[in-house]
Amino acid sequence: QKVDRSKIISIPEFIDDIPVVSVDFEDISCEIEQINIPASVTKLASISDSLLFQGLFDISIKHIEISEENKVYWSDGYAIFSKDRKRIIRYMSFSKNEYTVPEGVEIIEESCFAMCSMLESIMLPKSIKEIKKDAFYGCDKLLEINGIEYITEYNSDMFDGDGLSYALNIPYLKNKEKIIIGNSLVKYNNLSDKIITVPEGITKICSYAFGWDNENDQVEEIILPKGLKYIEQGAFSKRKFLKKMIIPEGVKEILPYTFNGCIGLETIHIPASLERMFMYSFDDSDNYLFENSLE
């Protein structure tokens, strides 16, 4: 990518013979196209703030250079990494629409791709182990996350720290028939069938996995697997045609809004393992469910 030389900022290694050890990204103009970081810098402040570029629609940053002699950070020109290249800390090329995370990276740090509104496709390496909070916050054009199947543990706030319901405008979450990460069912969008069977091996139904508005909603029954342990908040919310639900043994609690708006729910089987049922678990559902239809 070509960079306008007048829009390159080079952080000095020394000021009055004193080493520059810290750079605060809040002080860098969004009109800058390239940032050069010297060997002396050991701290990049504000770099993990998901709101760092919030509301800035013309972010010009394309390229970042970090001195090879820097002992804390490394860059491939597009992102900032830990020196050992096991952590990608912040992606900085805001005009690119695709990016391949290098092999060897194990952790995508908090807010790494936050506010990369042009990004459409990310390729993850086989080495990836963890994706942290707000990693994809504000990625409103993101269509593909290839390699996400390598993640063994789903972090429920990787798309938005306030929960999945706040990230449902991300195309990746809307367009896939279903998204499974590790043993977690993250999202199920194909609701045109009257009966849906959740695959065996799933131990967690994530927040709003079946929930939220869907114009193709025809679901009357969702069959859950025997090994299921966790059902997160709002998992089945707004499934207005849902009539029957058998919650398997092993599930210990029904969280708030799990069946919010399930106005057609007639029968729900509660397992002996259930220990807690929260207020508003059946919010907007008819009260007679609790009196006459609880098996």
| Span of the ends, CA to CA | 63 Å
Question: For the report, how would you describe the main beta sheet?
Answer: 5 strands, mixed
Average pLDDT, all residues: 86
Per DSSP E runs of 2 or more residues, the count of β-strands stands at 25
Helix-strand makeup class: mainly beta
Strand content: 25-35%
Q: Could you give the order of strands across the largest sheet?
A: 8-9-10-12-14
Shape: elongated
Number of helices: 2
Helix content: under 10%
Spans of 5+ residues with little confidence (pLDDT < 50)?
287-295
Q: How do the helices and strands follow one another from N- to C-terminus?
A: EEEEEEEEEEEEEEEHEEEEEEEEEEH
Describe the structure.
There is one protein chain. The chain has 295 residues and is mainly β. Helices cover 3% and strands 25% of the residues. The chain is built from two helices and 25 strands. The protein is elongated and about 75 Å long.
Key phrases:
five-stranded mixed β-sheet; mainly beta; 2 helices; four-stranded mixed β-sheet; about 300 residues
Tell me the layout of helices and strands.
Elements: E1 8-10, E2 14-15, E3 18-19, E4 22-24, E5 34-37, E6 43-45, E7 63-66, E8 73-75, E9 79-82, E10 87-91, E11 98-100, E12 107-108, E13 121-123, E14 130-131, E15 144-146, H1 171-175, E16 178-181, E17 184-188, E18 195-197, E19 204-205, E20 221-223, E21 230-231, E22 244-246, E23 253-254, E24 267-269, E25 276-277, H2 288-292
Parallel strand pairs: 1-5, 4-6, 5-7, 10-12, 11-13, 12-14, 13-15, 17-19, 18-20, 19-21, 20-22, 22-24, 23-25
Antiparallel strand pairs: 2-3, 8-9, 9-10, 16-17
